[in-house]
Amino acid sequence: MAADTGRLTGTPPAVRVRDLYRDFGPGRTVLRGLDLDVAPGEFVALIGRSGTGKSTLLRALAGLDRDVAGHGEVTVPDSVSVVFQDSRLLPWKRILPNVVFGSRAPDAVVRGERALAEVGLAGRERAWPHELSGGEQQRASLARSLVRQPELLLADEPFGALDALTRIRMHALLRRLCETHRPAVLLVTHDVDEAIVLADRVILLDDGVVHTDVRVELPHRSPADPAFAELRAYLLDRLGVHDEDVPAGRRAAA
Amino acid sequence: MTAAVDTRVVRRRLGPGRRIRLAFWVGPVLLLAVWALGSAFGVISPAILTAPWDVLTAFRDQWVEHDLLGNVLASLARAGLGLAFGALAGTVLAVVSGLSRWGESLIDGPIQIKRSVPTLALIPLFIAWFGIGQEMKVVTIALISMIPIYVNTHNGLRGIDGRYAELAETLAIGRGEFVRHVVLPGALPGFLLGLRFAVTSSLLGLVVVEQYNATSGVGHMMTLAEQYGQTDVLVVGLVIYGVFGFLADATVRLTERKVLTWRRTLDG
Ligand SMILES: Nc1ncnc2c1ncn2[C@@H]1O[C@H](COP(=O)(O)OP(=O)(O)OP(=O)(O)O)[C@@H](O)[C@H]1O
Ligand SMILES: [Mg+2]
């Protein structure tokens, strides 16, 4: 499937990557000539096997890999927010100051409180990070990246530590927030279902390049939809998960 | 009403356990008791160590006749001023050398060299530079207390998790904000540890510098007592130094507990 550059042809992409190389020493070239465009407001899910360079790509876009060898062309918007895999709250700041840390908006505190309420942490503004559960810490860090209203949101497995129910609530929340603020989003996930539920586009990284790039065009994003199952089966196949790997009980569903 | 049932599985505690109330005072009070009892039963002869009550008498005498309060305040001002300059200089140098490679190469070497030269050996030089007045005394105390502050703050700062710096970079904050919100709070535990050492060092420095031509201060009082062979007054001086050190350390530890509530450590 060909790479799809923006829905509205003519508007420059929010993210533009050309011929990106990153290597961690001899024989450890992780990205080899990667090209990627993300349109403004587009939600892209990035999947791929462990160790294929998803975090490496995200760090390149976040500008956090100045010490890594490589070359290529990277363009990103001015305001970028990152949700790290670990929540990375400063242990010496309470939750609200953590959420508004670095935000220069005059109404930062109000926005921070609202963001905390949105992620279900109203009333915990004065807690210390170590007093929150792992999932709560992750939600606080999501709130931190949302108060900034970024043009690009980079998220590296942000929902890893959440239970199924909270995860579904966070999915709904993230979709809603993205529809209001319309940042471009690049979200790394290991969960193919999560990718299909959330994203406008799913790209699969393999061998250092974008190996598969599909647009998600489903009327209802429900696993009950046969088109959902079809897309999931396609992506799993592309990931190298074949029918014989799926336990017999689950094969019928796929 | 019956008591609520509370059956728990409890693991053997490996940490130090819950705080004891007034625990801080147990050791010093015990020490005082041993001293008093030893003197009372003649185990400690007055020639070795004056009895506590004789020290009290000497204390009252000094207070009324020889302006002990003035001496204590003069000493405190000296130690406090030196400590304040030392703490400031140590912190600034630690931040500069911790955050910039150039700063480190310029500052860290000289400090390590300075560490291996005993400051007390530098006093003759300082006398040549600053005279024998207050400046020399404050400078000496500042230099002595700067070293532990520098070493521990620098160490604490270098130990800050690099991922917090990364976070700060993605939030696009400036250097100043980074120092204020990430570096200083992160290095605070190290700074406070350094401060505890520095307090002790500043008192050590005080004892020495006050022997040089002081006209006031606890050291001055002790120098006179030495000349006149007044052992009880010497002990008054020693007790005052001890109380200084103890109270200063207690203050730093209390501050530590108040400002480091975010930490979850064995200290509880
Ligand atoms: N700092 C580093 N030094 C050396 N090798 C590295 C470094 N960072 C990443 N790598 C290597 O680069 C490869 C890609 O790493 P990356 O973290 O991007 O993978 P990933 O796709 O995010 O994997 P996962 O899904 O497990 O998070 C891995 O083989 C990893 O060992
Ligand atoms: Mg990763």
TrEMBL record, chain A:
InterPro entries: AAA+_ATPase, ABC_transporter-like_ATP-bd, ABC_transporter-like_CS, ABC_transporter_ATP-bind, P-loop_NTPase. Keywords: ATP-binding, Cell membrane, Membrane, Nucleotide-binding, Translocase, Transport. PROSITE patterns: ABC_TRANSPORTER_1, ABC_TRANSPORTER_2. Residues 15-232 form the ABC transporter domain. One of its GO terms (molecular function) is ATP binding. It holds the Pfam family ABC_tran. This is Aliphatic sulfonates import ATP-binding protein SsuB 1. It comes from Actinocatenispora rupis. The lineage of its organism: Bacteria, Bacillati, Actinomycetota, Actinomycetes, Micromonosporales.
Automatic annotation (TrEMBL), chain B:
Belongs to the binding-protein-dependent transport system permease family. GO terms for biological process: transmembrane transport. The lineage of its organism: Bacteria, Bacillati, Actinomycetota, Actinomycetes, Micromonosporales. Residues 68-252 form the ABC transmembrane type-1 domain. InterPro entries: MetI-like, MetI-like_sf. The keyword Repeat does not apply. Coiled coil: none annotated. SUPFAM superfamilies: MetI-like. PROSITE patterns: ABC_TM1 (PS50928). Pfam families: BPD_transp_1. The gene is ssuC_3. It is found in: Cell membrane. It is a multi-pass membrane protein. The chain crosses the membrane at residues 22-48, 68-96, 116-132, 138-157, 178-199, 233-254. One of its GO terms (cellular component) is plasma membrane. Keywords: Cell membrane, Membrane, Transmembrane, Transmembrane helix, Transport. It comes from Actinocatenispora rupis. It comes from the Bacteria. This is ABC transporter permease.
